[in-house]
Amino acid sequence: MRRICQPRSRSRPHVTVRYARRELPEFAEELYDQVWLDRIYLSGPDTFDAPSNAEGLSTLFVRCESEQLERLSYKPDFPDSVFHLTLYDGRPSQFAEKAYLLLCTFDWHLEVKLPPSHVEPIRKIADAAGNTLPRLTPAARQLLGRVTNGDIKAESLLRIGDDVRLELLRLTCYELHSMVMPSSPEVGKGIVHNHGRTPPMAQGELWSFFDLIRDSGVLKPREAVNRDHRRNGLYITPPEIASDMVACAHALLPSQSYPIDFGDPAVGSGIFVAALVGEFNRGDIRSAIGVEADERRSALTAERWRHIGLEVNSDDFVERILGDAGDVNGAWLAQKRNLVIANPPYVRSQGLDAARVSHWRSASGGKVGLVPDARSDLYVYFIFAAHTWLEAGGVAMWLLPTEFMFTRYGQVLRKYLLEKVDLIRVHVYGGPSQFSNARVSSCVVLYRKSHPQSTGSVAFTQGGTLMSPVERVSVPWRDLNAEGKWQRIFQSSLQPVGTKTLVTIGDLFVVRRGIATGANRFFVISQELVDALQIPARWRKPVLPKAFLIPSGVIEADNQGNPGNIPFSWLIDCDAHMAEIAAEAPFFAEYLKEIEMEVGDRELVRRRKPFYRQEANRPPRFVFTYMARQNSVGKRFRLNRSNAVALNNYLCLYPLAGVETWLAASVANELLLLDALRSVGNTALKANGREYSGGLIKLEPRELRDLSLAVVPLGLIEALT
Ligand SMILES: C[S@@+](CC[C@H](N)C(=O)[O-])C[C@H]1O[C@@H](n2cnc3c(N)ncnc32)[C@H](O)[C@@H]1O
Fold first, then answer.
1. CATH of region 223-490
2. Could you give the dihedral angle defined by the CA atoms of residues 145, 150, 156 and 158, in that order, rounded to the nearest 10 degrees?
3. Atom 2 in ligand 1: which residue has the minimum CA distance?
4. Residue of the nearest CA to atom 11 in ligand 1?
5. Model confidence, pTM
6. Per-domain residue ranges for the chain?
């Protein structure tokens, strides 16, 4: 349908799930690997255009819904965007408008089953030079043949008039509807209660999405949007953080079936609801209530989560509980929650209405027994207001800026956490900000609404994730006090090691990254494929397998120089012209052409000429696993006696000239040097490297160069001096 509406479009039909300026953090990959997509729900045609443009529509898409994709969704600049499959996106056109009206005559609400698959990074279709034919998959080609009795071929799509195109669209849509059964239970608007709070937003970001994206798919900065988000404290939660938080809450709840009454006082589009639905059995979620100040967002969120019965209240959470109107109309407020998880808005105190703040402070005194500092940001009032909503014994978990741990205004909140509830855990996410559009550093605070366990202790963790932190300090409750600054708790006992205490790796080796192919799946191939494609030996190189497939510290060579004691693959690395390849190895040439179609557009691949020649990289003498768990530090070094090259899952160590001479003096020296490398301690590694979830530590070449060896073979020192 995309090709019928816009035959010249080069974009692969897709649903955008994540669109953030920041790269996917390492620990998020796990979540993206975990979630399988096996169905998608097509709810019907829609447009991002504002109503009544006489020139017609400039956008037309089919709205989609998917609980599985919601769990992964992150578009910080477009918090209200909906999943969609674009059919038309260009100049305003009468055709697009007619197509929209035509598609509206169908029932839709189709649940389409898909072969189970994961979300993938954006790939563009490689565009062979001069090829301007509409791109159709074999299945789409077949479909076109079927609905037109073979009368219209892909190439004719460029030439047919609008009327024929509309007829074709009708036939295709009819075919779609006859292939897929409608799924009625999903229809409906969702539960939304309007408490008459805010006026709807002046202009929906729903349609600003397309304003901001050019054909290239590059996001144009629009400061105004961001400013607006800052004003409203709208830093939406990355899905990997939401899932981490919910998983942690799950681990805390009684293992027996525990009926959850979930509440999110700043529900936004419901990323915590998505994580909840992914983490718990449906039967365990007894009820779910969200509160959201933005009326339009409330309606969208209620619709998005209608199938789980999420009740969304368009209301001001703080004002409803602490404001002068009190809780008179707050029906939702009477329904106490036993699990509250939220990322409240971080609006600065200066942006808050002074009269309201004054009311909130005195109401907090009455309801919680503590009066927030006048300079408190909005999130502090959220926590105090939630005290009323949380059931006794219930669990609350907040994603907060770390500021409260060391600011003066944070002192009352620290006091609250120590004296009014049972504080269980404080976790600070390491590294740069978790939000792609904000610079705050964030932490999670977890407590139970019950008396503080003054004889117990509180776990402060840092780095990695909540479920798998890098550092943990257990602080006895009686040692914590609100006047003290909590971030001192984290002052690590680890200091980066001095660079020149002994001999560093950089004194002995040139350290380089392994080869980045840009598409290992296609360039790193098995022996079977090599045989099938009859690739001559000079156009391929043996390549080291993943580290877990190398049990020992030494990779031995067979009599041809290939690895002898481990499984290995082949790396395609060839500088011959295509014509030469086609003459000598026609199957291989075909394969390369296919690769080019698939991945020829990727940055790394495109830059190489020819694209199947890899960067020059000699077989390294030693390798170091780029990323691994901390408890296996020494084992990350391996001696490579084979001719195998290494990919960028390794750092490659090439001995400097003096070291090379010393190595050549005796076969035993290689092993002595391996032992020396393996003497690098965990502490040094941890202090120099970057930590990720599950205790994974990654070292960049510069960081590896700076590591000191704890022992150095005597003869080597002499050889160097
Ligand atoms: C930081 S965002 C979090 C959204 C979503 N829960 C997430 O984690 O991605 C805060 C949300 O709270 C809403 N909000 C702001 N002030 C509010 C208030 N006083 N009462 C209820 N919701 C509010 C904003 O519209 C926004 O959707």
1. 3.40.50.150
2. -30
3. 234
4. 266
5. 0.66
6. 2-122+131-186, 223-490, 505-720
